[in-house]
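Summary for the funding panel

The consortium committed to producing paired sequence-structure records for every protein in the target list. Below we show the first two records in order, beginning with the earlier of the two.
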Amino acid sequence: MGDGKRARDIKREVASELEKAVEFEKADLAETRQEWHDQLRNDGAQLAADVARDKEKVREALDDVRHPERLAEAAEEKLAQAAEDVREVAQAVEHPSEIVAEAKHVVAEKKVAFDETTATIAAEFTSPTDKKRLPAVLRVFGVLLIVGSGVALPGIGKAIYQAVTMFGSGAMSGDGISTIVVTFLHLAVLVALAATFIVFGVRLLRNQRRWAALLSYGLYVLLILGGLCSIMLSGMSIDLVFYLVMLVLTIALQSYLDPTLLEERRAHRKAREAEEHKEGEDGTLGRDPTGKGYIALNFFNLFWIFVVASVLGLIMEEIVHFLFVVPGQWQDRAGLLFGPFSPIYGCGAVLMTVFLNRFHKSNWLVIFLVAAVIGGGFEALTSLFMQYAFGAVAWDYSNMPGSLFGGRTCLPFMACWGLLGVVWIKLLLPFMLRLVNFIPWNWRYVLTTVAACFMLVDAVMTLQSLDCWYMRLSHDPVDTPIQQFYDHEFGDTYMADRFQSMTIHPSDAVRGK
């Protein structure tokens, strides 16, 4: 009984396997048949195309046979071209002076074009005021710049030689890599400044006003960069007076050297005031007049973007800290000595407005990526400067995923910057423009000037108070009147309470190493 059942089961299994094998063979046969049909169809299409091409060639050949004059005309054209080439070669051999004359003509045409380009460039760097002789005091100032820079260059060269020698001998091994980098960067800036001052002095002596005025833009960059290096290496020292005085002199000289620049600014300002009055009445004040961007990138708009974004950024950061970072604990996240300002958000908003203003209608992903790079890069550079200058650390993302540049920024917070950039460009710029336009157009310049002076004083006093805080923690003497003022008014307790998110470790700064 059991054997019969087992036999039936075996038969059913064999039948099932045979059925599967048959089905598989049928499917394989159908697939093979389909492949054959496809291949035959493709081969047929290719054969038809080849036949059509061959028919066209045969038709053209028959057409040429029916019209032999076409072959003769083509042959005659080729022979005529060859004969022309031979005649040109023979003429060049018999009359080489014609080739020379043609070459001279081509060279003369290029020289005329070059002279026109040179004249156009020269016109950009000259002005009618170059004919007006500079006062003797400015020529003396030019001589002093040349002599002073010439005297300073050997000293700077000696300092560079000593630094290189110390670095090569290992005498700077006790210094951190950051100190070494900033030291050499500062020396390079000093060399560039000395060379630029010499060129600037020569331009003054040659009465080249516009050249000197344009050269001053390069001086701005070098003086600011030199001042930042000086702060990182020496703090708020007396050395900064040189950079500040030269910066003020350069700004004052720029307009005087080329009055046309000042006249252009005055004429533009008068025309702009009339336009602003009309735009205020039409409700378009502050918009980009070219239509390429959303907001006009002038000092007024950018300054108030900085102020408003500094306030909004501070409020946002304090709320996030209260709700998510340390729930229930309110922390003052201010970045300046006075006022509810977090300048890193203000600067970030200005940078995003400058770089993304023209992309306000672009895809949000493009804005997100660019804003993430701008925000993360600026955050890292700010952290680097604060730590190198004062040993100050206000944020550290070393323990965050995707930490970059030693914890100065990280991928999650770069994504936050990207999101803020999208929200700022797509949504908040219109709100910002309406908010700024609450300021009456005839009060704009006075109010902006007063506010800008306050923010500048606030920034300078913040740097000086941080420098004094650093000196106290590093046990450096606090003996100058300015240092004693900050030591008395803004002691450790005040600074720790004002900058609650910041800690200062003197060993992290590049000076004193």
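The next record, for a separate protein in the list, is shown here:
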Amino acid sequence: MPTGHPTFEALLEAAPDAMVGVDAAGVAAFANARAKELLGRDPVGAPLGELPAGLNVSRCPMGEYELVVLRTADPRALRAVLDNTTAAIFLKDPEGRYLLVNRAFERLHGKPAAQLIGRHDREVLPPEVADRMRVDDLRVMSSREPIELQEEVTHGEHTRTFLSVKFPLIDERSGEIYGVGGIATDITHHVRLEARLREAQRLEAVGQLAGGVAHDFNNLLAVVANYAAFVRKELPDDSRTAGDVDQIIAASRRASELTRRLLLFSRRQSGTPEVLSLRRVIESLELLLHRTLGDDVDLQVDVDDRLWDVEADRSQLEQMLMSLAMNSREAMPEGGTLRIEATNAVMRDPDGPSSRAVKVVVADTGRGMAKEVAAHAFEPFFTTKAVSGHGVGLGLATVYGIVTKARGRIELESEPGQGTTVTITLPAVRRASDDHPSPSAPRGRGETVLVVEDADAVRMLTGRILYAAGYQVISVESGAVALERLDAADVLVTDVVMPGMSGVELAVQARERRPGLPVVFVSGYTGDTPLGGTDDPVTAFLAKPFDGDELLREVRSTLDAAKARETHS
């Protein structure tokens, strides 16, 4: 064991910083190894001169010399970086005792640095956490390589996920390991987003399956309903057979509604805005809502009998109401009351044609939301539901999009334990809705309709309806064949989803050859096919299953619009 006092040289070399002593003339009289390494030269015996930029330099008198201390960075700046980063950072010695922790690490484990420095994990952390961390530390030191791992830290009822990087502390000169360090970044939000994305992808796959089945089913319904209508026209009203056929037609309509609701849940229902009775939309959903919400939810529906009409897409209004109802159901796991009210109201809109509006209120007695949570309720992928897959955060964002597309407004009020109330205001229209009886469908004037449909039964049905109404009909099964017969057509009626060339692709190529050609798209499921230009009066969309009058009205409307455009050009 050494005896006596340590020498000045030994103390100089033991200092953690780079140090140089200069005399009054500025000549370096001594320097430790760290200073020589930092400067890249031995400064002793020569003027110290200008020091490299970027060094933190402090000077203090030391007898007849001036002591110059060199650091690569201001230690205060390093401490500021450590304490202000959101990542939890620690350093330990080879035995596992903490040498340094930052504020984020203190917050993560709920202990101040004074209770951590100099102690082992097992003294300050739960045993299962301490054992796992010690195993990881030993792995790093034995391999002398950093490792990356994902960890979960639980405090009370909250579990957060961290991406941790642990690395060995190796002395550059001796190559010895003097400890282990770690940086843990909170990735809880990213993990939740990934879970929601996976859920959204799963729902997308279900939607594609539902949409494909509904496409074929809509074709069958169109055939059943329209051929039944043909038979009904040939029967006396008071005959028993006429009553039987009426039941077939009514059943096909109910099946059509079920198909539309299937597409509603898959968010693949195609359609366009129409003037309709919101009261009838709500009443048509009431039975489905009762079955979906369950017996422990008391559904109360109060709709004004004189409710004004609105202009919107029916399937989107149904989706809006279903999404709000499902959100309320999730907020009432033990049951409760869900109330849906619809009344006439006033909405001040300087750009609107009228101040008349319809107000829909959906209120529940569920858990409610805190003010800061409610402020984000309409943001995409924001959800208050668990990460287990029960919520993807698209419900209220979708509702917001539907309401704004209909030129309406939406407000949300909620308090913890007091439930949630969503108020939607939609502009009302004065025109009679399509739910009221309409005049008989217009007939053709000898024009030629090119019908493109890959389903044989639907193609024959469509042709029969048009021919009986006074049109000449060319029926083909594909877009390629349709292009060969295009010159003879006055209007194109095409299915959207077809093998090979889609209806949209056919319409684009057809209009390149015949600009301004009227087009009627017909489909119950458009898949991912974009329908552009449906605001054009010579372009229409007809949802399957359709009846003959609907088809004839759309064909006549596009033909008349094309003729009017030609007259004014």
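Regarding this second record: The first helix runs from residue 8 to 14. Residues 385-394, 433-438 have pLDDT under 50 and may be disordered.
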